[in-house]
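Following up on my earlier thread - several people asked me to post the actual chain instead of describing it. Fair enough. Here it is, all 291 residues.
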Amino acid sequence: MTEAERRYLDRFQRVLDHVDANLDGDLGVELLAAVAAFSPFHFHRQFAELTGVSLHRYVQLTRLKRASFALAFRETPVTEIALASGYAPEAFARAFRQRLGQTPSDFRRSPEWERWAAAIAPLDQARRAPMTASFTDGDVRIVDFPGTRLALLTHRGDPARIGDSVRRFIAWRRATGLTPAKSRTFNLLHTDPDTTPPEDYRLDIAASTDLPIAANDAGVVEAHIPPGRYAVVRRTGPGDSLRPAVQFLYADWLPRSGEELGDFPVFAERVAFFPDVPDNEAVTDIYLPLR
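Reply from S.P.:
Thanks for posting it. Predicted structure:
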């Protein structure tokens, strides 16, 4: 990529960051064109040609993604979610159903994640051109990670259904008082969703705890992250795709480092996560075990 191309994409990155940080405010074409320092006469076409989606649809899907996370994973009232998304409640229900295929209340009760993923796919695709994460060896730290006891729930099966496992784990955390404010949040990345058959996919969702874990219907069990040396790289931005960071550690950094891998899965710590912070401000640390 030339320096001119990089500067051009950086201007769109400013727009995406502004959208993420200002979902409650004005996100009209003239304001966003000014953020990018482009002419408003051409900006909507520039945006659509680069991202594959219109500016209006991008903003709408970004607002509806945050709304859907609040419905599925938080206890925020539907009316409050609608107003924060820039809609009157009736208009919010219409837009949500039109784009995501369910009413907000139905989605809160029983999300249809496959339909949701298909509806949100244009948003994920639109982010890829300006937001492709890149890393250098200087981004990697080697740390001594302390042994950490976990309360852990294993998701097995189609990655599109992870949301159901997350909801079950969140409900268990609420019931036990083990909220993210009181304990750290981890994912153990056993398999790659891009190369693993859906039926063989596995992801562990976990929280640190020193408390005993009583028998429960959620399927939460005790587990441990062993102490040792780990290479860690920080990913700032949407946390639903960790592939660039994981791929960099395995394919680029590790061959140059002279290190050998330890006997434990790569894992991620969710330091700050969406929708509690804007998507572009989510922080995830990815740990690679070393000998």
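The chain has a mean pLDDT of 93. That should answer part of your original question.
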